[in-house]
Amino acid sequence: MGAEMSVAACPGCTLGEAAPDPSTKPQDAGYELVLPRIHCAACISGIETVLNAAPGVQSARVNLTRKRAWVTAAPDADPSRWVEALAEAGYEAHEVAAGQIPVEKGPDIALHLGISGFAMMNVMLLSVAVWSGAADVTRNFMYWVSALIALPATAYAAQPFFRNAWNALRAGRLDMDLPISLAIIGASGMSLWETIYGGRHAWFEAALSLTFFLLAGRYLDQTMRQAVRSAAADLAALEPRRVHRIEEGQRVSRPIEEIRVGDQLWLAAGARVPVDALLVDASVQLDRSAMTGESDPVERRAGQDLVAGDVVLTGPVVIRATAVGESTTLRRMARLIATAETARGRFASLAERAATIYTPVIHVVALITFIGWLVLTGDVRQSLNVAIATLIITCPCGLGLAIPAVSAAATGRLYRHGCLVRNDTALERLAQIDMVVFDKTGTLTRQELMLPEGLSDTVRQVLRGLANVSDHPLSRGLRASLRTVTPAPLEHMRELPGKGVTAIWDGTPVSLMAAEDGCASILSIGRKKIKLERIERIVPGGAELVAGLQQHGLAIGLLSGDSDCRARQIGAELGIARIWAEMTASQKIEVIKGLRAGGCRVLMVGDGLNDAAALTAANASIAPGHALDVSRSAADVVITGEIGLISEVLCTAHKARRRMLENLWMSGIYNVVAIPVAVLGLASPLLAAVVMSISSLTVTLNALRVR
Amino acid sequence: MNILLILIPVSLFLGGLALVLFIWTLRADQYDDPDGAANRVLLDDDQRPAEPRQGITRTTAKR
């Protein structure tokens, strides 16, 4: 079907497509691509057109909600080619490895929700007849019809609650699902009893609406957790999945899982080293700032070791793998961090705390009501009636929706802004922080060479030419600031790792070398020498972010692995007073722990491997999207755009927490009003229906204000 | 009150019909990509076949 479909979809794009062989269809494999930046109809059609025209693709479909594309193609297809084709068309894409596609539970809760919803609507209609005055035989008839719908519907739809309550009971715990299950079973059982004996009140619609509203809360909760899980998969997709292995002198693109110890790999400049390895080529310069926080490049010679996570600055190079997969240094540190996760301590979320206060109260109130009525009237049936009415009315309908509705709305809002929330209690923790600690290099700053004023055009052209020679971050910065200048034609270009670059320009030797003190670079053209100061530039939006956070009364700290003088300079520039410099990874943890012991609630923002442990130690943590995956998986929230998004994250977290508290109060007030009425035996099914619907509605509407 | 004997089965039938339709939409993955569905309306290439059901969905992509 793929061939006809892409012809139909885009007549102009089928030229490059290899005609798919029908015989390969049964073995088609599924691939998943993450598309972090798509947002509109044009993106959908653009991406599907590119993918459908790509070699080997049977069919492709974009899912805008999840920002994914699912592709069926021949099993030996090379997704990196599609990613390249998409990049050429201007769409950022990453391949998700097969093992990382999250397994989903399917539409389970949605089905329960649908069934209880439809049953509720029908039973409610029948109840309206009763409430408006049906009596005797008609009323009983209505109740029988209701029972016929309600009993099977609740028996099926409320199963998630029964199961959880049973598990909790066996483990000797009391949780929210127990009063819920009791109320549902009690209401259904008592209604059946009343129907058989021709009683006045049956509570079928109460049992159903209780099930419906609580399932709605569960559904929102599940959707949010799924979003969190798929965010984790999005992040994993940012890591390189494929590397070039040298096989019989040829470079072949292979999935990283197939690399074995001893394989020779080819890495382009700017690539991240995927495994621990030894250098085969003569020498290379590495950016190890992700590991150590030091901004100066590290030089490695033939036979010396490279660590997974290093970035190759002077490529291309050939390396030989010495440790792969789980045994690389990077993975070992990742595991250390995973075990340190408990250091954060179990954070009791608002929902949990509300439940621990609320659950015993409901049980006790219902029990006291039953005993009280039994003592006063001696009528078991009536006492049971009132007790179950109390249970139904106090059952936390609004409470079940109060928090999931807000979390879902807030997570969705952040996702649209390009912030991935990785943890379900992250928003609550973020809302409580009072201090923000930043890592410096990579998070707040970038190194650049400052161009002196009044450089002649020829000098600028030579400089631009020299900048082209290397892929050092400084050269990249120069290239960016000299974007409009045409590079001078240079010959005999050479890069001296750790020192600089040299070349011949029109018979004159030219060079750009690091100065002795390391704080500047010297440009020489023949005998003429020009000094270029090395400066650390603050990333776009960084200064505004720090100022904004300070305005909101948050204390700001700078926690850097870099030298003291550089850290102080940046601190002064940004107006940050508290500075810790020359910190190793473990010292960073100590600083964070110290701050927490001093009563601060700390938000750590960092990207490097040396920050990863500190990210875990802090109360909450944020990492930029370009961070190493170790740091990203240690962080609660990952921002894919500019650093300024942090204020958006904090703002949303505050709003979400306020809405949650409001919602808890609101549903609490409904219950406080309703409890005395129920205990006195004045509650009716009509009152229960009204209270439940109003509290659920107000709570949901309030939550939507976060969006 | 005999009218009830007709009206109640009718209302139950209609309710049941809606439930069956809802289950069908669930099974057909129609809640998989609400944003995408909203945006696809704007695509103007009319030749695009009615593809959502036979096309690739999450479940088929995993295999």
Could you explain the architecture of this structure?
- The complex is a heterodimer of chains A (707) and B (63).
- Chain A has 707 residues and is of the alpha+beta class.
- Chain A contains 23 helices and 26 strands.
- In chain A, strands 14-26-25-24-15-22-23 form a 7-stranded mixed beta sheet, sandwiched between helices. Chain A has a 6-stranded antiparallel beta sheet with strand order 6-5-7-13-8-11, with no helix packed on it.
- In chain A, strand 24 (602-605), helix 20 (609-617) and strand 25 (620-624) form a beta-alpha-beta unit.
- In chain A, helix 10 packs parallel to helix 20 (609-617) and helix 12 packs antiparallel against helix 22 (645-679).
- Chain A starts with a helix and ends with a helix.
- Residues 1-26 and 340-345 of chain A have low confidence and may be disordered.
- Chain B has 63 residues and is an all-alpha fold.
- Chain B is 59% helix and 0% strand.
- Chain B has 3 helices and no strands.
- Classes of the chains: A alpha+beta (707), B mainly alpha (63).
- The interface between A and B is large, with 39 and 38 residues.
Précis, in short:
The complex is a heterodimer of chains A (707) and B (63). Chain A is an alpha+beta fold and 707 residues long.
